[in-house]
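To the wet lab folks,

You asked to see what we're planning to order before we commit. Fair enough. Below is the target structure as tokens, and below that is the sequence we designed to fit it. If anything looks off to you, flag it before the synthesis order goes out.
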């Protein structure tokens, strides 16, 4: 797929699951344009339609309304030129790490051997060079997620979609993953859509943060994050980080995602 300059364009894209009395409005019609090479974060409470949005954009489920194009191509079925990373890495224990990465190539009917060198390079880029030939069960949670990132990128998709990829990791691992993901993105400049319910993670990683409201999901605000990169550990002390995090917290307070606890 060409990385057409129009990027990803959602126009009144909405999703209702079911019909009649059992209908659930998962996503109210939203407008959103994601620029090629942009790092976009989507933050919102559980159930606000974040995963639904990812599945709509990748064509894994049909939308109920609206128009959607990915790099100039209207989405009418599963988008193939995308890498997806979920909260759970789901690696096959009977395949080595590198063969798990190549599984993506295999599934797509591509020539596995032609991608082996690229898989090795990616494993090096995510810090797993020494583990390429090991089974996944020898890896820590963070390392498994690194392997999943390499697997998502092996077929060279222009778009990487990540659905709470660090959600199951401990805080220290998560912070390291954040730093490493930013470095990888700076090197590759893929278009990234990063879904999280961590305000910090969204602000520290993104060029723009889409703030979603509780169910039924809507876009509450889109906030540009004008902070220099790389955003190291010290970025947490940056006045801009603090101001934007405060703004998002304020929106969530207003929308009942957070409540002030009684004094
Ligand atoms: P999030 O990822 O933000 O936690 P989801 O996108 O998974 O939220 O879900 C949004 C809403 O849509 C929720 O109310 C959820 O129960 C509902 N939903 C998601 N998938 C389905 C489905 N396949 N059938 C019916 N309802 C669904
Ligand atoms: Mg979800």
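Sequence we intend to order:
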């Amino acid at each position: 797929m060409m990385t057409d300059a129009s990027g990803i364009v959602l126009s009144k894209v909405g999703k209702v699951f079911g019909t009649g009395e059992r209908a659930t409005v998962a996503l109210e019609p939203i407008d959103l344009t994601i620029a090629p090479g942009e790092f976009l974060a989507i933050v919102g409470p559980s159930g606000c339609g974040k995963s639904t949005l990812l599945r709509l954009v990748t064509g894994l489920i049909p939308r109920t309304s609206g128009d959607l194009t990915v790099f100039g191509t209207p989405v009418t079925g599963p988008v193939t030129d995308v890498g997806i990373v979920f909260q759970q890495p789901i690696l096959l224990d009977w395949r080595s790490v590198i063969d798990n990465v190549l599984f993506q190539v295999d599934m797509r009917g591509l020539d596995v051997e032609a991608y082996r060198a690229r898989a090795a390079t990616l494993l090096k880029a995510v810090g797993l060079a020494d583990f390429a030939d090991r089974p996944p069960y020898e890896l820590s949670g963070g390392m498994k997620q690194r392997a999943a990132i390499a697997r998502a990128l092996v077929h060279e998709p222009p778009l990487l979609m990540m659905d709470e990829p660090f959600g199951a990791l401990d805080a220290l691992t998560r912070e390291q993953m954040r730093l490493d993901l930013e470095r990888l993105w700076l090197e590759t400049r893929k278009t990234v859509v990063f879904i999280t319910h961590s305000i910090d993670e969204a602000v520290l990683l993104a060029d723009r943060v889409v703030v979603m409201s509780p169910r039924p999901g809507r876009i509450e605000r889109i906030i540009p994050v004008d902070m220099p990169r790389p955003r190291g550990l010290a970025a947490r002390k940056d006045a801009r980080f603090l101001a934007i995090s405060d703004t998002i917290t304020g929106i969530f307070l207003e929308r009942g995602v957070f409540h002030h606890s009684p004094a």
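Structural context that might help your review: Helices lie at 50-57, 97-107, 112-125, 141-153, 171-188, 199-205, 239-254. The radius of gyration is 19 Å.

Thanks,
Computational group
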